[in-house]
């Protein structure tokens, strides 16, 4: 009887193992065959290819819903509106090619291998591609150092040299100076009938909807800025729109001069990065009646700042950033108009254009961006 009971005990003990052992073996097999870079890791290492993860915003009615890189709902674009009623608009960016020692390191995106300089030029090229694809008959002007060896042979694109200090340490400061000099020159040459609006942006953005409508839909602003709910840097300098009337350009120049003055006197310690954004925030906050609580609501609003009528546009729509910023953790708005590939997202910008070129579906491309948004890539 004792032996019988002992045998049954061994049998009862072994029954769970019959289920557990095969399960452990199957899990081990899955772990062995799982791709090593299937999801972002926590070490901060950058990846050399796109990595898709969960798309934020699932279940929210006003956010893009995705299954992998396939859009499940429709984005809201204005491209089907009549463009011929809109006055001409030109994009302006600051770009400089630095004289660097020979760079033997290369990265490959798609079927193309790039050196460091070639990568920068490829990003500039994609910047132009998105503008000319999504905003037909829109010109692009590149402000650059006269000493820079920059040549761009593209229809509707011109290089505009402006003297200054384009070193990496002073580039953000120089950008404001170049904007001012460019606007001053155009104000001198402008005729009464010649109204051309300007949108000043970083060169690492993708325009995914027609931005000319902001000048039509908001007819009373002199310049427009993008904002986010960030206490230290609520105003982003990567997007500044200027109305092309004499009054609009004049007041925009005055506003930017004030920003430059504050930048030079208060934030030179941050001249390489962020100084311009800190100066912008200071100028806006210096208006006695300005309520900083407006930054918490992602809705456009107007405010008079130092005699200039400023339109504030939410970054979530007009300056949406994959790696950070307002809106990232709540997904991508269905009416997003600009995607800003700041920081380590430059590869994602090139990959997105390659994907769009092969599919011609802007919503699916946005899903690719959204699903890749929290991954650090190799440049």
UniProtKB/TrEMBL annotation:
Asked if the Swiss-Prot or TrEMBL record annotates the protein with the keyword Signal, the reply is: yes
The region annotated as signal peptide is 1-26
What is this protein's record name? Uncharacterized protein
Q: Report the InterPro entries cross-referenced here.
A: Nucleotide-diphossugar_trans
Q: Which UniProt keywords apply?
A: Signal
């Amino acid at each position: 009887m004792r032996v019988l009971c002992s045998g049954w005990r061994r049998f009862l003990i072994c029954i769970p193992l019959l289920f557990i052992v095969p399960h452990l073996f199957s899990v081990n097999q899955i772990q062995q065959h799982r791709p090593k870079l299937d999801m972002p890791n926590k070490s901060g290492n950058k990846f050399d290819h796109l990595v898709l993860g969960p798309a934020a915003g699932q279940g929210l009615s006003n956010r893009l819903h995705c299954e992998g890189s396939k859009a499940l709902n429709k984005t809201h674009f204005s491209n089907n509106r009549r463009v011929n009623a809109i006055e001409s608009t030109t994009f302006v960016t600051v770009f400089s090619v630095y004289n660097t020692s020979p760079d033997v390191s290369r990265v490959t995106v798609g079927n193309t291998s790039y050196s460091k300089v070639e990568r920068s030029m490829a990003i500039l090229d994609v910047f132009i591609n998105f503008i000319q694809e999504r905003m037909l008959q829109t010109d692009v002007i590149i402000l650059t150092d006269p000493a820079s060896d920059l040549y761009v042979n593209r229809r509707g694109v011109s290089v505009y040299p402006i003297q200054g200090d384009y070193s990496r340490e002073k580039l953000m400061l120089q950008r404001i100076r170049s904007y001012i000099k460019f606007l001053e020159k155009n104000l001198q040459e402008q005729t009464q009938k010649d109204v051309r609006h300007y949108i000043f942006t970083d060169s690492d953005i993708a325009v995914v909807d027609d931005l000319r409508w902001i000048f039509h839909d908001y007819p009373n602003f002199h310049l427009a800025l993008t904002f986010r709910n960030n206490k230290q840097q609520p105003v982003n300098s990567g997007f500044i729109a200027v109305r092309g009337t004499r009054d609009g350009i004049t007041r925009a120049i005055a506003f930017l001069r004030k920003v430059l003055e504050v930048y030079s006197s208060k934030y030179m310690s941050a001249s390489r990065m962020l100084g311009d954004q800190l100066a912008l925030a200071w100028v806006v906050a210096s208006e006695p009646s300005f309520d900083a609580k407006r930054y918490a609501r992602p809705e456009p609003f107007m405010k008079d700042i130092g005699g200039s009528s400023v339109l504030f546009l939410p970054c979530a729509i007009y300056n949406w950033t994959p790696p950070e910023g307002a809106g990232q953790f709540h997904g991508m708005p269905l009416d997003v108009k600009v995607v800003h590939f700041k920081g380590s997202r430059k590869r994602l910008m090139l990959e997105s254009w390659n994907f769009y070129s092969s599919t011609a579906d802007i919503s699916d491309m946005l899903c690719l961006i959204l699903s890749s948004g929290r991954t650090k890539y190799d440049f």
